[in-house]
Write a structure and sequence with these properties.
The protein has 173 residues and is mainly alpha-helical. It contains nine helices and no strands.
Length: 173
């Protein structure tokens, strides 16, 4: 498969990750992806052929996101999740919905480096090695950030006890 086709195939994953980085803002996430793809295509002749194309494109996206956060008028500004998208009224007894909302708020409160690592691995399903390459950090640093992010999420959501943690997507506790 040609490199341009491989990059095009990454677009859905890039959009998911960019929207998560932009805290649910679809337009800002799409703008970030477009900027990333433009830069990737322009830099394609200069990329190292021995490195993973996926990690390389995600690194471009992450670096562009970092640039945008530095340029923001108020870096680190937290937006209430309720302001991101209005939700229709829900009938009472929506424990799963509430737990998901609580987790979404907790993820938004994580430090940026932990949030990037967690979203890349948990949301996008990147392998540890690909995520470390995309973030341009050693594998051990990524594992440490993931562990701290998960511990913080358990603490912020009141699931710090061993048996109250939600099962992982692969079915293991």
């Amino acid at each position: 498969m040609r490199e341009l086709d491989q990059i095009a195939a990454l677009t859905p994953a890039l959009r998911r990750y960019a929207r998560a980085l932009m805290r649910g803002d679809r337009d800002a996430g799409d703008d970030l992806v477009q900027d990333c793809l433009e830069r990737a295509v322009a830099a394609l002749p200069h990329r190292r052929r021995d490195a993973s194309l996926t990690a390389w494109v995600f690194r471009i996206l992450i670096n562009r996101h970092r640039d945008l956060m530095r340029q923001a008028a108020r870096p680190g500004h937290l937006v209430p999740v309720e302001a991101l998208r209005p939700e229709p009224a829900q009938p009472p007894g929506q424990e799963h919905h509430m737990a998901l909302r609580e987790t979404e708020v907790a993820i938004a409160r994580l430090p940026e480096d932990q949030r990037r690592a967690l979203l890349l691995v948990a949301l996008d399903g990147a392998s540890i090695d690909d995520a470390a390459a995309a973030l341009d950090i050693p594998r051990g640093t990524l594992l440490s950030r993931l562990a701290r992010a998960r511990a913080s999420l358990r603490s912020m959501t009141g699931r710090a006890g061993g048996d109250t943690a939600a099962p992982r997507p692969n079915g293991r506790p």
